[in-house]
Amino acid sequence: MTYSVVIPVYNGADTIIRAVDSVLIQTLQPLEIIVVDDASTDETVSLLERTFSGQVKIVRLGSNEGSAAARNAGMDVAIGAYIAFLDADDTWHPEKLHVTNAILSEHPGVALFYHSSTLKEFDKTIVKPEGSVKMLSFARLLRGNYVHTPCAVIRNDTSFRFEPSMRYMEDYDLWLRIAYRHKVFFCPQKLARLYRPVSTEGGISSRKWDMRKGEMKAYLRLARLNPLFVILLPLLLPYSLLKHAAKMVKGKTRKA
């Protein structure tokens, strides 16, 4: 099987080299590395061209359109059987694609595969692909977004695209649409390193209320999959608000 790696970047000159390097040292090399520049105003593109001439395919957007549109642009030109996502400020374990390939080879019907992540240095021991692999049901995914984008690998299917109108939780919206009709598998091995927690200051995820509204929008869009999902909205929307309230209270308690 072949893998296309898609990395969206906006003003990522400080981290993009580290991210691409983590792909180039994979024990199983991808078919291609596609970096989508979302109209950066720093030296991201020139740095990529100087450092990785011929090793990276660069797609440049004319205006800043957000991560959903940037990832879609990379997916539109990807030719691998599967697409693996990485963010410009994160890295992969050297065995990430090897482990992914071993699992997907055993489960060819999987449309979305994801694994765990870490905020620390990677375990230096060799990662074995025969780790415990579990299926994630659509019902389970409705409880929240367990899939971090740098941990996700999806089948290259033209119907799998992020919703460009969503600036928040567009990944969750796509995972729900995939999980409704296809198999989703999870591996607990920590094969991606995130350089800041998902909900801390500095990243898009720090805008907690915007993220919550994005989650609720993803729930509202479920009716496009099946009109009967309208029946669930009176449960899902308050559930989302309760989760937000609980996290806000927890945050204030920690500060106190």
Description:
This protein has 256 residues and is α/β, with parallel strands linked by helices. The protein has two domains: 3-207, Spore Coat Polysaccharide Biosynthesis Protein SpsA, Chain A, CATH 3.90.550; 210-255. Helix content is 36%, strand content 19%. The protein is built from eight helices and nine strands. The chain has helices at 16-24, 44-51, 67-77, 96-106, 138-141, 170-181, 208-220, 233-255; strands spanning 3-9, 32-37, 57-60, 82-85, 91-92, 110-118, 134-135, 152-155, 183-193. Strands 1, 2, 3, 4, 5, 6, 7, 8 and 9 form a nine-stranded mixed beta sheet that branches. Helix 6 runs parallel beside helix 7 and helix 7 (208-220) packs antiparallel against helix 8 (233-255). The chain is globular, with a radius of gyration of 18 Å. The relative contact order is 0.14. Mean pLDDT is 91; it is low at 199-205.
What is the N-to-C succession of helices and strands? EHEHEHEEHEEHEHEHH
Secondary-structure-based class equals alpha/beta
Strand content: 15-25%
Main CATH class of the largest domain: Alpha Beta
Mean of residue pLDDT values: 91
- Number of strand segments: 9
N→C terminal distance: 52 Å
Helix content estimate? 25-40%
Q: What does the overall shape look like?
A: globular
By DSSP (H or I, 4+ residues per run), the number of helices equals 8
Number of domains: 2
CATH architecture of the largest domain: Alpha-Beta Complex
Report Rg.
18 Å
For CATH, the homologous superfamily of the largest domain is named as Spore Coat Polysaccharide Biosynthesis Protein SpsA, Chain A
Low-confidence stretches: 199-205
- What characterizes the major β-sheet? 9 strands, mixed
Topology-level CATH name of the largest domain: Spore Coat Polysaccharide Biosynthesis Protein SpsA, Chain A
